Amino acid sequence: MICTLCKRPQQYGGLCPTCTTDTLEYLGRLPHLWAELEDWLIPGIRGGAQYGGRVRMAEAPLPLDEEALTLRAAGGIVGVLEDWHDAVRESRGLAVPARAGSLAHRVRAASAGLAGHVHFIVQWEQGAQLAREVRQLVGRVRRVTEPGHELDEPKPPTFLGYCVAVDPSGVVCGSRIYADIRKAVQCEWCLCVYPPDRWLALRHLQPSNQAAADDLQAAAA
Ligand SMILES: [Zn+2]
Ligand SMILES: [Zn+2]
Predict the structure, then answer these.
(1) Cα of 176 to ligand 2 centre, how many Å?
(2) Which residue of 2, 59, 89, 93 is most buried, as measured by CB atoms within 10 A?
């Protein structure tokens, strides 16, 4: 089985624990991020602090940030979250709540509502798309509030080869092994560890993977 979002191998279907935790974290942050965007709605406010809190009137006001406006509007962050919250509740046979109150309240209600259904979302066939859109919202806010510090999009994992560990009865494990520079690469099934200096050896031990091993060696040379 692979995670429906990051495509890393795992024992069960649906979202992996990492993608689930990330999604919950993003849902928890979105109400704050939505509030932060207010500073980008008012022309001129961004330069305010560095002049002792006063906006220099001689300078032309900064243009309104249209992306901030879009994200803050009813169809932006709040709309995406509410549409998903409605969809989750509908597919669970629950009543869809009325969209009432201030936008700030609605962002909080929809993100908390979605977080409350996380165990359903993990296994839901639309869970990966939901998680992807939540991550994209956080990325879009960051591009406004922290230009140059975009959320690192996780890259698809690089397939290293099949696990070559042999169990006491002589059976080769054969599970798929993926490169990951952030942590020790370990076979999900037999727990055999593949540190980076063994990746090339793993490639060489693949019966059908000689060409890939040559590529890797050429790239490393
Ligand atoms: Zn995942
Ligand atoms: Zn293995």
Answers:
(1) 8
(2) 89
